Amino acid sequence: MIHSETSQWIPVTNPATQELIAQLPCATEAEVNRAVAAAKAAFDSWKEVPVGERARLMLRYQALLKEHHDDIATLLSRDTGKTFEDAKGDVWRGIEVVEHACNIASLSMGETVENVARKVDCYSYSQPLGVCVGITPFNFPAMIPLWMFPMAIACGNTFVLKPSEQDPLTPMRLAELFKEAGAPDGLLQVVHGGKEVVDQLLVHPDTPAISFVGSVAVAQHIYRTGTHHMKRVQAFAGAKNHMVIMPDAQKQQVISNLVGSSVGACGQRCMAISVAVFVGSANEWIPELRDAMAKVQPGAWDDANAGFGPLINPQARERVLRLIEEGKAAGAECLLDGSHCRVDGYPDGNWLGPTLFRKVTTEMSIYREEIFGPVLVTLEVGSLEEAIGLVNANPYGNGTSIFTASGAAARKYQHEIQVGNVGINVPIPVPLPFFSFTGWRKSFCGDQHAYGKQAVRFYTETKTITARWFEDDIAAGPNMSIHLK
Ligand code: NAD
User: Fold this and answer.
1) Does residue 181 line the site of ligand 1, with CB under 6 A?
2) Which of 26, 231, 344, 481 could disulfide-link to 8, CB 3.0 to 4.6 Å?
3) CA of 216 relative to ligand 1 center, distance in Å
4) Mutate to test the pocket of ligand 1, among 213, 240, 370, 372 (most ligand atoms within 8 A of CB)
5) d(CA 233, ligand 1 centre) in Å
6) pLDDT digits (tens, 9 = 90+) for 171-209
């Protein structure tokens, strides 16, 4: 670790109290260059390290993360305001990706075909790219960095991580533990800062691959700038996730899943359900949904009765309050209004209570914009076809779910819906790491997604070898065609 010589510092605060937790240095241009250079130097030796040894580093890292699981979750709760239970989930879903990275040998196997021509064999290898960059958001400070650097490094790359400036303590702890697991110097670099640091990494000649997770506007900037500089980029962006509720679904299952998936983590999940679409008579459950949502209240991270924590900062709270007011002004019916929520003992927290709207139309800003707060909007339609049309007309495509007892309805939904992660009676269908996290449309820029086999394709280049070994010296003369004989 080096101490920055910067003159720019960002205060990191506890969102439940506004207490100052840390002062974050924005890395200077020279420090960013130094981090990339160190990662580049480490790549020269790391790319030659046998695959089993790379896997063993991940095995040791997985064990250490498990050993420190609760400490990391405690730090994460302080940094983000998440409840302890939710923070543990954030850490655990990251550990699962490290477990996946332990399988790197079988994941990165190439292809072979013998005798593509007489005595000619063809085979392919996956080779690492160099220094990969990861830029991560505030809302999953353990899981999302762990989506990226373990897979990239297991593939033989080195990595520069630029975590969110809003809650950098957890990513720093992840990096310390990685070093403790035996990562050689330079393998993983962490640099702090905002746009300036990101922009430097995006145009740096020694960073061939960029992974990003965050909001739509920034994802598009990252994708445009990175690809303009001839890098490969995967950029995961914002969302507006719909749950479609059929009248044959189980009412209690629908209500409890809707409450958890809409206001859990204060709605600050890219896979939160923020739109509920009731088909036909399922709309009769809306009053009960309101009562169930009203029972869940925010609180401090160590309050076992708290359903969720605060918003990340006062500006985020102001933004959500503005959207709630816009919804009311546009004529939506606010069945439950969390705008004035307070939490005893925490007068300065960025609190917002569960908020529920009915009679929402697709023109309203509460429907069009990603709110990223504990706000659920409901729409009512007459048929499954109408629900599918509605979801497909929305520009986002991160996640969606359908609740139904009908296999035929579920099959139709999974087939016709233009969204990349689909749940059937599962509200937040984040795939486990042996699959990939496959957001679509406005929720993703790029082609290869996070973790799973797609991460190996993203973090490696395929080399295909065509080989002939002569058994005897054949002087057949030059082959003037492209055809292999
Ligand atoms: P954000 O876009 O504000 O910030 C993400 C990262 O980009 C941070 O590291 C930040 O420092 C950097 N950044 C911010 N502005 C920048 C700029 N102008 N130029 C260059 N870099 C910049 O996102 P956030 O508020 O931290 O996270 C919330 C967003 O992330 C939500 O939209 C959420 O849906 C999305 N998200 C998406 C996924 C997914 O998998 N699709 C997962 C988690 C979060």
Assistant:
1) no
2) 26
3) 8
4) 213
5) 15
6) 999 999 999 999 999 999 999 999 999 999 999 999 999
CA distances from 345 to 16, 25, 75, 301, 406 (A): 10, 31, 20, 13, 47
The two tokens of residue 438 are: 């496959």
**Taking the chain, what is the end-to-end CA distance rounded to the nearest angstrom?**
57
Q: What is the pLDDT of residues 392-432, one digit of tens each?
A: 999 999 999 999 999 999 999 999 999 999 999 999 999 99
List, in order, residues 6 or more apart from 15 with CB less than 8 Å away.
Answer: 80, 81, 309, 310, 311, 312, 313, 349, 350
DSSP SS3 for 479? coil
Catalytic residue positions?
270
Whole-number pLDDT of residue 472: 67
**CA dist., res. 245 & res. 371, Å (int):** 21
Here the tokens at position 483 are 């055809």
C-beta of residue 50 within 8 angstroms of C-beta of residue 42: no
Shortest CA distance to 369 belongs to which of 438, 272, 258, 274? 274
- Alpha helices, H only, 359-416: 365-368, 384-393, 407-416
The span from the CA of 362 to the CA of 360, in Å, is 7
**Which one has a higher pLDDT value, 345 or 482?**
345
**Closest Cα to residue 139, out of 175, 189, 94, 188?**
94
Spatial contact of 69 and 223, defined as CB atoms under 8 Å apart: no
235 lines ligand 1 (CB under 6 A): no
Check if the beta carbon of residue 143 is closer than 8 Å to that of residue 100.
Answer: no
Q: What predicted TM-score, i.e. pTM, was given to this entire model?
A: 0.96
Decide: 236 in ligand 1 pocket, CB within 6 A.
yes
Q: Give me ligand 1 centre to Cα 202, in Å.
A: 15
ipTM: 0.99
How far apart are alpha carbons 452 and 473 in whole angstroms?
46
Assess contact for 352 and 341: CB atoms under 8 A: yes
